[in-house]
Write a structure and sequence with these properties.
alpha/beta; Rossmann fold; GMP Synthetase, Chain A, domain 3; 2 domains; four-stranded parallel sheet; 28 strands
């Protein structure tokens, strides 16, 4: 069945052609996207407005140029995204929450000269100082200004063109090679400098075909998408996949509205919600038991799903969270559990048409670095010290293989368990200790609070594990007690507990380990 579903979808086309196919399949007048303004967009609206805006953008940009997008989850974003696809330009999704310095580095990495944004957004998000810095190096265009400049003749021409859109698109001369770059995303930088990730049309559409067996995106579903679209989880899983599958999409500007989001999900009768452990725990604490009664798929990714979060959702809402796993470089989904078979504690089985192997790691007997290869693997990295030059993935096994950097175990049934990032292991007493496992012990001990763990080098050049927790009363003896009761190794007990540091969180929901490590080092 997996083979049939995967083989019956042709990823050898552009994202814009995939949009046209979805429009033909589900109906041009099907209302597919809306945001908090509650003004739904039909497929035909996206197509018409992408033609209008695309023809304007063509005058100021060149074919295959990398164009920065700096917008929140609003309906203007899909229109701009597909306007660039229509004209053969490459959207580069900028993380507006990362500050002027990081955005500037991202732009230089991807050789971006032009950024599109919104005056209303800049004002509401209080990003005036960020824009002021970016204006020194880049051309900034505001959608409100463009709207005023588009002539009636252009609108009329586009109105006529949409009736012959397939022929009109075919007559355009932008790059239509499915193997070329369709979008540029940037890694979160939670453990290092952000890198540009170039994903092709085929990469993204292949991942859609791979995921279709596990999650049915259909007209009977409503996706509540609050993950930012500059993140791969939000862009492909939360936006492109449901758009192509005919599911209604509700774009919400932030995942952090823990009180309001459950109310919206209830009113919209949403059936699909993607998020992270951090967000799911936040929603559950404020939601009423009936708020999530229409949800069918609740899928967690981006960070480890904790047992207390699983139990909370099961006890309060009668829902099992499906844990998945992926990285930006794989478009992003590598594995996911589904309603047919959900193995708690694992991130599911690896997607069809992805090959993998485990690279041995010294000190880890039951697992290794997960290395993958498949049609969803990125074209390559763009690096700050070599701007604009694509570096395709490869390992000792050859070109096309991508080392995820995650330590994993694959059981006899093919289910994957992520043991932690390779960088997030510490060597204690000659043994490799997972910092994620230390965090899990803390979550087991104090399930209501947030915890994060880092390793620092002490004055004797030895690694020390420091647990940062929001529990102001946390004591090591409590960890020791729970570890003993659950037969957890003493090595998973941290050297010290730090209760005076606020745990920094990235906009994607991940813990910002770079800044956390700096904060811990300053105090120790």
């Amino acid at each position: 069945m997996k083979n049939n579903i995967f083989d019956n979808y042709n990823p050898q086309k552009t994202l814009y052609k995939a949009l046209l196919d979805a429009s033909n399949e589900h109906g041009k007048n099907y209302e597919v996207i809306e945001d908090i303004q509650r003004k739904p967009l039909k497929y035909r609206d996206i197509i018409l407005q992408s033609i209008v805006l695309g023809n304007y953008i063509k005058r100021f940009t060149t074919e295959s140029e990398h164009i920065g997008i700096m917008l929140p989850n609003v309906t203007a974003l899909p229109i701009l995204f597909f306007a660039l696809q229509f004209t053969g330009r490459v959207p580069a999704m900028l993380n507006f929450s990362s500050g002027a310095y990081a955005i500037n580095r991202s732009c230089k990495t991807a050789k971006i000269k032009t950024i599109y944004t919104s005056r209303l957004f800049i004002d509401k998000a209080k990003l005036e100082s960020v824009i002021k810095e970016l204006q020194k190096n880049y051309s900034i265009y505001y959608l409100e200004d463009i709207k005023k400049k588009i002539k009636i003749s252009t609108k009329l021409f586009s109105l006529i063109a949409q009736f012959f859109i397939s022929k009109y698109y075919d007559r355009q001369h932008p790059n239509k090679d499915p193997e070329k770059t369709a979008v540029i995303l940037f890694t979160s930088g939670s453990e290092g400098d952000p890198k540009g990730v170039a994903l092709s049309h085929r990469n993204l559409l292949s991942n859609y075909a791979q995921v279709k067996y596990h999650i049915e995106f259909s007209a009977s579903d409503t996706m509540f998408c609050c993950l930012p679209l500059y993140h791969s989880f939000g862009l492909n899983a939360g936006f492109l996949m449901p758009l192509l599958g005919g599911s209604k999409i509700f774009l919400y500007p932030t995942p952090l509205d823990y009180r309001l989001i459950p109310e919206f999900i209830s009113k919209l009768k949403a059936t699909i919600l993607f998020g992270t452990n951090t967000f799911f725990k936040g929603y559950a604490n404020y939601a009423k038991p009936d708020d999530f009664k229409t949800l069918k798929y609740v899928v967690a990714g981006a960070e480890k799903l904790h047992g207390d979060t699983i139990k909370l959702w099961r006890d309060k809402f009668g829902l099992d969270i499906l844990q998945g796993y992926g990285v930006t470089e794989t478009s992003p989904v590598i594995s996911v559990n589904d309603l047919k078979q959900n193995k708690i504690g694992t991130v599911g089985s690896i997607m069809i048409n992805i090959n993998h192997y485990l690279e041995p790691v010294e000190g880890i007997d039951n697992g290794g670095r997960l290395v993958v290869k498949g049609p969803n693997i990125m074209l390559g990295y763009l690096l700050y010290d070599n701007p604009g030059i694509l570096q395709p993935p490869s390992t000792a096994k050859g070109a096309g293989w991508y080392d995820t950097g995650d330590i994993a175990n694959v059981d006899d049934e093919g289910f994957v368990t992520i043991l932690g990032r390779a960088k997030r292991f510490a060597k204690i007493g000659g043994e490799m200790v997972s910092l994620t496992a230390v965090e899990e012990l803390a979550a087991l001990t104090w399930p209501q609070e947030k915890h994060a763990c880092v390793a620092i080098i002490d004055e004797n050049k030895r690694e020390r594990i420091i647990l940062v927790t929001e529990n102001k009363e946390a004591k090591l003896k409590e960890l020791q007690k729970i570890a003993k009761e659950n037969h957890i190794s003493k090595l998973n007990i941290p050297k010290k507990i730090e209760t005076t540091i606020d745990i920094p969180i990235l906009a994607t929901g991940k813990i910002d380990y770079i800044n956390l490590t700096k904060l811990v080092a300053l105090k120790n």
